[in-house]
Amino acid sequence: MTRRAAGVLGGMGPAATIDFMSKVLVHSQRAGGPGAREQDGVRLIVDSNPAVPDRNAAVAGTGPSPAPVLAGMAQGLASAGAEFLVMPCNAAHAFADAVRNATSLPFVSIIEETAAALACDFPGVDRVGVLAVEGCADARLYERALEPAGIDALSPGPELRRRFMDTIWAIKRGDRSTAATASLRDVANALIAQGASVIVAACSEVPLLLAAGDLDVPLLDSTDVLARRTVDYASGESFPTR
Fold first, then answer.
1. Residues 44, 59, 69, 89: which is the catalytic one?
2. Is the pLDDT of residue 241 over 80?
3. Alpha-carbon span 142 to 124, nearest angstrom
4. Phi, psi values for residue 6, rounded to 5°
5. Verdict on whether the full-model pTM lies above 0.85
6. CA distance 86 to 88
């Protein structure tokens, strides 16, 4: 089977990009069934660039925009042979237009794909908790994506947001402790107490520690959604019209 090559704008952060690649492999193997071969996997052309400017500071107006760097990465991936682009960082989608405008390649949005998966996998849900970093939350990426479906996106309040951000920075530094996992669970549980019937892991560091079964409600992993859809599009599924 001829597959499209996926260009990955990664490094935000590096461990999350590796997690995304691992999930692409898993979904590719599942799609191939018992007779799957190594050669049937998805070609990933990855630019793992941890030097991309801080997306949170950029959205807040206190740091440089990552848009020029992201555009350059997109162009480099296109030159390397990518046939469509993905970016396993939710907050960076505040600057998705820079990626879209940099090349003529289709760009698969983790925000739009996760919103679509939420509506498909959990019909009737009207209130979800969104575990997202400041840049993603302040840009209202999930709020705007879920509003047309009538889904209310709940975000942590100021105190819980500070705790969540501290935990995400710790995970980016390599913290895989039970304390870090407990911190993520506490923030999620606070959103569940507010009425969230599903929790969206809307930061790609969250699923490095928090998994399905760790909460009393379902956890929708945006990284896993994007990985699954990357395999679908690489396998020939038509890209949605934006």
1. 89
2. no
3. 17
4. -95, 130
5. yes
6. 7
Residue with tokens 């407990």: 182
Q: Give all domains of the chain, ordered by start, each with its CATH number.
A: 6-110+224-234 (3.40.50.1860), 111-221 (3.40.50.1860)
* Structure tokens that stand for 36 in this block: 């799957």
Cis bond before residue 13 (omega within 30° of 0): yes
List the catalytic residue out of 203, 208, 209, 225: 203
CB atoms within 10 A of CB 225: 21
Residue-wise pLDDT for 38-67, tens only, equals: 888 999 999 999 999 999 999 999 999 999
222/230 Cα distance (integer angstroms): 12
Which pLDDT tens digit goes with each residue over 195-207? 999 999 999 999 9
| Annotated catalytic residue 120 | no
- 203 carries an active-site annotation: yes
